[in-house]
Every structure is written in structure tokens, then in C-alpha cells.
Amino acid sequence: MSQVENTVEQARSAVASAGSLKELDQLEIQYLGRKGEVTQLLKQIGSLPPEDRAAFGQRVNAAKAEVAAAMEQRREELGASQSSVAAEIDVTLPGRLVPRVTRHPLTETIQEIKDIFIGLGFEVVESPDIEEYRFNFGHLNYPPDHPAMDEQMSFFIDDEHLLRTQTTAVQGRVFQDRKPPMRICTIGRCYRYEAVDATHGHTFMQVDCFAVDRDITLADLKGTLGQFAHEMFGEVETRFRRDFFPFVEPGADFAVKWKGRWLELGGAGMIHPNVLRMGGIDPEEWTGFAFGLGVERMPMVKRGINDLRLFYENGARFLRQF
Amino acid sequence: MFVPLDWISDYVDLRMTPQETAEALTMLGLEVEDWSEAGASGSAVLDITVTSNRGDCLSMIGVARELAADENVALKQPSFEMLAEGPPAEELAAVQIADEELCYRYAATIVQGVQVGESPEWMQSRLSAAGMRPINNIVDVTNYVMLETGQPLHAFDLDLLGGQQIIVRRARQGETLVTLDGQKRELTTDMLAICDRDRPVAVAGVMGGAESEVTGKTVNVLIESACFNGSSIRRTSRALGLPTEASYRFERGVDLGGTARAATRAAELIRQLAGGTIAQGVIDVVAREPQEREVLLRPQRASKLLGIPLTAEECQESLGRLSFETKTQGGDLLVRIPTYRNDINEEIDLIEEIGRVIGFNNLPSTLIDGVSLQGKDSQWGKLESKVRGVLQSCGLQEVVTHSIVPRETPEAQGIQPVELRNALSADVAKMRTSLVPSLVQVLGGNFSHDIRDLWVFEVGKVFHQGEAAPAESRRVAGCLMGTRWDGAWTLPDKKLHPEGYARALSVDFYQAKGAVEELLQRCGIDSVSFCPTAGPLWRDGYVAEIRQGDSILGFVGEVRPELRQAYGLKAIAFGFELNLEALRDLQTQDLDWSAPSRFPAVKRDLAIVVDQAVEYATVVATIRRSAPEILEGIELFDMYQGEQLAPGKKSLAYSLTFRSYEKTLTEDEISAIIAAVRSALETELGAQFRE
């Protein structure tokens, strides 16, 4: 084998076994660089008889092209399968921690709810946790001493105040300040005099929406809640069944079907004419719907969280998963 | 309420399976919580929750009526005839309603010569399946007819009623009664009592008295069927702590038109099961006539509210199925409301009935058709979102804790807490006045689960007792323990960053302050000062009040050791609490900005030695005052106090950055400024310089 063939053979074998692009770069210098082994072969040209010189030159140039081609091919192979590269560092060591923090799952859910209703033209308003009896009950058409109050077991503060049992209490406040048309959403804590267990708490969060306009129908209520369920839960079946709340008539319970079971999300209905009248709104001219949904229920349904207490215990190992 | 389906079948032909029946009732508004294939009586039993407006459905006939409407079949009423062969009832007893506000109607039938014993098997098994304990044939009949019709009944031993008289009146001061459960009850003057000539013999609508109850010796019975004011019964039942099947029904409304016939039905069943002779006639004292009211229904209005076109005929058909009689009036319907439907008061109630018969699920779904309104978040919602974002970017985890806190929770300084009148327990007793104790509790809880590095924050409301009324305000608070680098491998390189390494090991006052400063800066609030203060939640000497002018924005400091120990937090913790109202008032919506200068910066270090009492802020203010605006930044990069210095002294090393908007600064310019700064520090603060 001639020296040219020999050099080409060495180069090809070195290129074939090169494990990294970096190694390949060095081989390129070693063989094809200005002082590289293949390039150096040309220097022998002076010691050859003149008639052989042209042929030798062509052979070296061909050899150079051959090695370059082999390198190009190997470069592509290496680029295609990085895993075959030997790393200089241990890339499997864990990444340095950036602050590992999340929003609380209830905040996350509230934001999601807000986004949906804002998109449907609702304006978010705030209302107090310590509420007046008249807004929590009277303005919502609760007759005095009525058993409907049994479902609203209350924490009392003084003769005029209690912790609101439902965010619906915002209606009377809004009616004091605004005239229809309106689409209002409020989200906040509600309180019930109830012992704490996996599915009950003395505190829970509720989103309450209501709309008053000239031609609002029960079908609009169904459509709005259906749209909400679609955005929040995806393609789910929904159910409206008749239920009773003093401040709506007709009144309904709203549920979604999740894993084969009906899960009740809250109450809904057409705002009772008495509620509109107390708010200074003529029920013949305006109609409206209202609904109140439990916030905790949504991540519980979606994520299969089976214990309400987890939300308020704030264990880091729980929170960091959201 | 437990509803055995074989009992229901007496009144309606059921073609549905128990499961289908359960679903139909649920959709109609009588939610079936649960049902069993075969109860004690061998029949399926449904457990139904009746909403508080539908007292008429607290009966087998009431439930059957709903099913009949749903199935569009006839309702079969039982017989309310009685075979009365005794003397006229009015000769045997007298009834008087003395309080017509609280008692609307009182009917009584009398059966003489009964034989008290066990009721037959079929009746016992139905009562058991419905959740009532069989007692004797007389009492069982009263319970059976109550479950059947919804009308609570009571049987008295007629011979034990003084003067064979019934007087329905308010109890007198000091009157007492031993009720059937053996408890002695103190009655008050706002309670309605059933009395004989001499004394109370029953708490009206709640429970009968033990002294006049039917026993094995009873021969003559008086059956009471009455209609009382629901609110009054509710108050009495609650005051006595005595909820009963009877009070439950009266609170929810009993059929004023069905009072007398329930008494006849009971008398006849007693005659059949216990023998004896029924006295002729019903003693029926009526203070308030039962009236079938008429309510106008406009089909157009029904269409408008339900969102589907409805004709008068269609409305008529739906209402007819529910046994409402209708007649047309113009294009509208005049609807007669049966006396048992206390819940129907106006047109909208009838529209719900129509919707119910059609089925809410069968109505269309649409979106609101009208003017478009701009949807938006509240001002608070926007600010709170921003605050959450900033604190998260500072490495703080969001938490949500309860607003109701344990009684022994310490208060924020000088705040009168809002106490609950009816605390659930010592742990659920009052409203929080600060978020900080709750956050310390969160850290304590996590610490006990071996989590040592945790920085948390919460955005929420706090409450205080104002002068006139309880009030609430909004806060953001943070609480930090451990380091943000929770694992050795992830620590910054010790060789490259010795200072950073040491600081990363443990959180301190300045870490909490850093989060506060970042938050304030991002809200565009500057010229803030931190002034030493003291407070019940913070360790003395390690807390600052955050001020801007006259406003106090909040506090930052080390959590008082006693406070964290109370929550089992053994690690040192630092925290802050800011008033969101102040943040809202002081924030700048669109922060000022300026284009960065295109000229290079020049840095100079300046190390000075001053008395330990001289504050960082004073030094910075002095440097600022003595340098022109081209002094872009002042960064403290080292602070030292110790052996190398004279006692009572400290060394502060600053890196000053100069930059002009107009030109590249020259060495001479910088030197002149540094000289001016040094001179000011020397004369104003007595500073010495380390070269």
C-alpha cells in the first residue's frame, strides 16, 4: 500500500471511531489542516520524477476529498445521535432549583372562573365577608322564621351582622348602586356553622353571577352555565333539575356528569320578582338569572381531590403539585 | 323522608322501575338521596329530600301527586268517609281557639270504647319502612295518617282532659308540661299550648303531654287535627330544642283545607283497627277559612321567562297535570290554587310549575341576547393578582388560610377583634386581625412534617371591630423560614460566591425586607422609609414599620419567638404584612421609565468607618446629597464590625456607579465628585476612610 493509501486508511479509521464533534474537529486539523498529514503528502511531490508529479498531485487531492467526505458523513451521524456522545459533564445531575412556588389551587381555580365569566361579559365586584342580615336574607326574599334558613346555619356577629352564608348577598348591594342592564360576578368566602370534615368546612368559596337585562330567559341561564361547564370541564353532560332557593323562581340545581356520577356544582334560577322589586327594578321590564357555584368543588371534581381540608392546611408537598 | 313505593302505589299506578321513579322525582325537585331495592316491608324505599317550600310533599299522597303529574295519570285519593254511630261529638268535648293569630283551624273527632293494642302487621311494616316506630294501634293510626296526608295528628285520652275541653291559647308565665318524651318543659308566653280546662296538655304543633297520652287503659280518644302558624311552631320547637315530625311539617306549611278530613280518616282507621264507636261529626273550629286563591298567568310571560314559545293551551295542559284548575280570561289563564299548595303565590310560581312539567332539561340553551357589556376584573382583583405575581417571582409560595381563627390567637397591635357570637369551638371563635399568625401556623405545620425551607405568602382579608360596626380590610403578608435553596447540590458555588453561600443558608430580616422592597417598587411606590418599631407579633428590636409620609404601609420583622413556639415552629422566621388599601392608594399605574444612557459607567469603591449608631440610610442620603445626578447607583457590598476596628465603629464599603447621559465621564470629574462626597461624609457623619 502506498503512503497515500496508508494515510487515507488511518484517517478513515480515526474518523469512524471519533466519538464527538470535538474529536472530529481535531482530526480535521490533524489530517486536513495546513500542516495536516494528508496536506503534508504534497511536500513529497518535489522528490518525484516530473512525469509522476501530476498523477501524484491528483491522488493526494482525491485522498483529501475522500477524508473530507468521510468526516462530513461522520459529522452528520454524530449530529443525528447525540446520545452516543461522551459528555464532559454529568448531564443527569438535577438542575439547580429555581424557586419552586405555585399559586394556591383555589386561587388558580378562581382565576380560571373569572377568566371564563369576564369573557362572557361579566364584571367582577367585591363584597364584604361580614354582611348585614338584610343583604344575606331579607333582600334575598327569605321570609322571617322560615326553614329555608336551616340550610344557611350562620355565624352571628351582632344584631345586624353575620358572616355571609352565600355570596349571593352581593345582589342587594349592587342593586343599590346600579341600574340594569348588568352582568355581575363575585367570588369570595362564605361561612356556615358546620363542623369540619372531609367534605364540609365552616368556610368555603363561592362564585355568584347574576345578569339583569330586558329579555333574559331560563334558556340563557342554561346556556351560560353550559358554556361555563364546557370551558371548565371540557365536553361534559350537564343537568338542570328543579330546586328551591327563596331568591330565584324557577329555581334549579346545576350538575355535571363526571366519571359516571352527577356532581352538583350549585344552585341557579331566574331572579325572583320580589328580589328585583326590593332592588328597585321593575320585574315586568327586566328579567334576570342568578347562580352560585362552589369553588372547591371544581378542583375536587377535576383533580379527584377527596378532602376539602387539604386546601386550607397548606402542606408544601400538596401545594407544589399545582 | 323515607317513601316505601308499595305505599305510594295505593295512590298512583307506577309503571316505572324504582330507579326510574327516583330519577323522575329528582328532576321534579324531590331529590332522591338514596334508594334501596327492598326495605323492611319488602318494597323499594326512596330517601327523599323535600325542599323547604314544599310541605305538601311531606306525605305519600303529595309524592304520589307529583308522580301522577309526571306520568300524566290520575291520582287515587283514599276514602275520607267515617262510619259515625255514636253521639254527636260536640256533646262529648268542646274546642275553643283563643289565639287566632297562631292557630288557624282546630278539628277533632272522637272514638269511644276503643281497645288499645298492637296495630296490624301491614301498618307496622309500612310505618317501619317510613322510619317510624310502631307504638299502639291508636298512635300508629295518627302517625300513619300524618305520613299519608301530611297532616300531623295527636290522640288524647279524652277522659284525662280536664272538663273534656280543648283551649288553644298561649302558655302562661310559669306553666310547665311533661312532654311524651318524659322531659319537663318550661313554657313561655310566646308559645302556643293546647290546654284543657286547667293546664297545658300539649305543646301545639310540637309534642303532646305525657299526662293525657293514650295508654293501655284508654277507652275514649280525641283526635286532634289542627293548623298552626308555621313561624310560631318553628320558634317554639327551636326554643325547646325539640324538632319533631309534626313541627317539621307545620314549619313547611300544612294544608288548611285538609284539616278535618285527616281527622275523619284517622277516626275511621281507629274504628277498623281498635274497635269502638265514632262520635258523629267533626268538631271543626275555623279561625281562618281555607281559600283557593286565583292567580293570573300570562302565557306570553311564561314564554318570555322560560325562553320557549308557549300557547295558553300548552300552559293549561301542564298545569292541569298538577291538578290546577284553569279558565281562560282574554288570552290569559286564571289559575285556581289548591289549598295544599302554600308555595304558589304569584305568576312566577306557576311559570316554574310549567317549566317543571316540561322538564328544565328539555328547555333550550342560549346565550344572553342584548347589549354587550364589558367584562372585567375588579380593581382589587387586579391589584391582588399583581401582588401574587410579584411575590411568586420573589420565591414565595401562595397559601390560603381560614379567616376564622382560634380564640387565643394574638391580635395585630391595638386592634379590637370581631368575636363570633356563636363560636363553633375555641378553635373557631373569632375573625383574624392579621394574616401573620396564620402564616406562622402554616410554617409550624410544615416544620412538623420535616419541611425546613418554606417561604409563604397570603393575600386576604382581616377584620376588626370598628366604632359603629365590624369592618374588614385587605392585607398581604409573607413568612419565611430556612433557605430558598433546599438541597446541598443546588446551593450556589461556595468558592465563587462565598458571601452568597453564607446568605443562602438562612433567611434573615433583609430577605423579608427584600421581598417588601420588590413589591413596593413594582407597584411604583418609592420614598418609603423603614423605622424601628415594636409590636405584639414581632421580636423586640427586630422589626420596622414601613412608612411613606404619614401613611403606615405595614411591618417587616422577625416573628416573635413566643408566637412561633405556640405553633410548634422551632426555626427562626421572618415576615411582613402590608396594608393593601395603602398599596392601592399609593400605587402608580404606569411606572416612569427612561431610555438607558448610551455612555459607559464608571465605578468607584468607597470604604468608610463610622459609629455603629449611624444608619445605612443616613450614609446613603448624605452621599446622594453631596453628589450630582450622574451618581447612578449606590450599592453596599460589605459591612464589617469587629476586632479590626475601634470599639463602637463599623466599616461600610460602597460601590458607586456614575454615568452621564451626555458624555463619557473623565477621571477628573469623578475624582472631584468623590472628594465632595468624602468631605460631606467626614463633616456630617465624622466618617473616616479606609484606603
Would you write up a description of this structure?
The complex is a heterodimer of chains A (322) and B (691). With 322 residues, chain A is of the alpha+beta class. Chain A has helices spanning 3-17, 21-32, 37-41, 50-80, 105-119, 133-136, 170-177, 218-233, 273-278, 297-303, 309-313, 316-319, and strands at 123-124, 130-132, 161-163, 182-191, 203-213, 238-242, 248-258, 261-271, 287-294. Chain A folds into two domains: 3-84; 105-319, BirA Bifunctional Protein, domain 2, CATH 3.30.930.10. Chain A has twelve helices and nine strands. Chain A has a seven-stranded mixed beta sheet, sandwiched between helices. In chain A, strands 2-3 form a two-stranded antiparallel sheet. Chain B is α+β, with helices and mostly antiparallel strands and 691 residues long. Chain B folds into five domains: 2-71, Phenylalanyl-tRNA Synthetase, Chain B, domain 1, CATH 3.30.56; 84-286, Phenylalanyl-tRNA Synthetase, Chain B, domain 3 (3-Layer(bba) Sandwich); 294-361, Phenylalanyl-tRNA Synthetase, Chain B, domain 1; 379-586, Bira Bifunctional Protein, Domain 2 (BirA Bifunctional Protein, domain 2, 2-Layer Sandwich); 602-689, Alpha-Beta Plaits. Helices cover 30% and strands 26% of the residues of chain B. In chain B, strand 30 and strand 31 form a beta hairpin. The longest helix of chain B has 19 residues, at 667-685. The model of chain B has no long low-confidence stretch (mean pLDDT 92). Chains A and B meet through helix 5, strand 1, strand 4, strand 5 and helix 8 of A and helix 2, helix 7, helix 8, helix 10 and helix 12 of B.
